[in-house]
Amino acid sequence: MDDDRTRHGSDPDDPVILPAEETRIQEVREVPVPPPGADAEVDVVQEERRTRVLPDGTVVEDGYRVEQRSSMRDRLPWIIVGVLVAILIAGLATWYFTRSDTKPVPGVVGLSVDDAVTRLQADGFKVELVRQANAKPPGVVFGQNPAANTDADEGSSVRVLVSNGPSTVTVPNAVGLRQSEARSQLVDAGFTVTTAQVFSDQPSGVVVAQDPAAGEKVAPGTKVRLNVSKGSGEVDVPSVVGTTLDDAQSDLDAQGFKSTVRRVASDQPVDTVVAQSPSSGTARKGSTVRLSVSEGPPADTTTSETTTTTTVPATTTSVTTTP
Q1: Residue 309: pLDDT above 50?
Q2: What global pTM score does this model have?
């Protein structure tokens, strides 16, 4: 038995049995003649028709139609965008080939010298550094030429004035302060500090003198000497009278004293200490004790008288008498 979706019979007049459902698609393009002065348009029409035979033998035909239009109006926005892009490119090219080679100089006053150099070089300028005395802290820019925001040739030099600090500074007072506080105050003011330990009636560790003195005008970085108390250093003076010179000097050295020696005549044995000054009490370590040391008894002296006789020769006088 033939398939019911095939045609039966060979006679053209024989009835044709359509399949249960058949789809036919037809696409039609129509190009109407545009009216004078109007944009040319092309209409594209796509049709799809579907014929179906229902179970009860009813033939149903349905379909749809799609129209697409392409016109100058559709392309006009793209044409405008293209024109604008071309104008922009032309403008950029004109600016690039006619642009000026100058640019504003950035302001660097108040910056550190390192930051100023970095900023100027980043903007395409060279840097000429000049260091001068100024009230600004050392290393800070206090002037520039050309001034900020002045137009200058790219790659040109900018003169930058850098502070070396003030030409003179006032020495602060350190006397009466503890050593650590005085040193910190002077270093913060830009000075260098040396110290010397000295005996003083002031408590140990207190500054008792300074050089240069407070209030003097000096160059920055000047060295300031501080005399720092190491206490009074008062100790008992040992009595060395009656001892030998060697023993006396040993005892004095052990107590921190110096000594001087004066030789004197004495009935005491030679090299015996017969006196000292100071003889008692207290004295500052490092001070001098004067020692009087025997050189033995005085030597005996004999006085002799010498008699001198003077002989006067006799003189004879002759007298002649004339009668």
Answers
A1: no
A2: 0.38
Decide if 133 contacts 164 (C-beta within 8 A). Answer: yes
pLDDT in tens, 58-105: 777 766 565 555 556 667 788 888 899 999 898 887 777 666 578 999
Give the separation between CA 30 and CA 9, rounded to whole angstroms: 39
Topology classification of domain 169-229: Trypsin Inhibitor V; Chain A (3.30.10)
Q: Cα(271)–Cα(295) distance, rounded to whole angstroms?
A: 6
Burial of residue 228, with CB atoms counted within 10 A of its CB: 0-12 exposed, 13-18 middle, 19 or more buried: buried
CATH number of 234-294: 3.30.10.20
Torsion of CA 127, 128, 134, 139, to 10 degrees: 50
**CA distances from residue 8 to 5, 13, 21, 54, 118 in whole angstroms, order as listed:** 9, 11, 17, 20, 98
Write out the CATH class of domain 102-163: alpha beta
